[in-house]
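Section 4.2 – Deliverable D4.2 (structural model, holo form)

The reporting period included a commitment to supply a predicted holo structure for the target in complex with FE2/S2 (inorganic) cluster. Inputs used:
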Amino acid sequence: NSEENLRVNFINRDGETLTATAKEGESLLDVVIRHRLNIDGFGACEGTLACSTCHLIFDRKIFDQLGSISDEELDMLDLAFGLTNTSRLGCQICMTKAIDGMTVRVPRDLSDARRDLAEKQSN
Ligand code: FES
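Output (structure tokens):
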């Protein structure tokens, strides 16, 4: 099913809402890339679980509908800026009918685990 019949709203870092269509099974990172949504620094590692720039904050009700979380995602989330109880990494969340029409919040700022690592290594 490659129809773009789902919808997602992103509240960007500056508070502006970006609305995009999405396909079932598509990751939120893919949605952002495909629509070229202007979210500063988002998805730096292209979904390889090596950054935390795709950090998104969900409503509790939506959060509970999301798939399970891997240890790798948890480790990376730990490094995310402004972590909340309903935070996930956007590259690990796939669109389903259950979360169609949801609104997700992009944290005000980001930290890139790779950049932090590079800084540590150069010190
Ligand atoms: Fe890097 Fe999601 S894009 S962890």
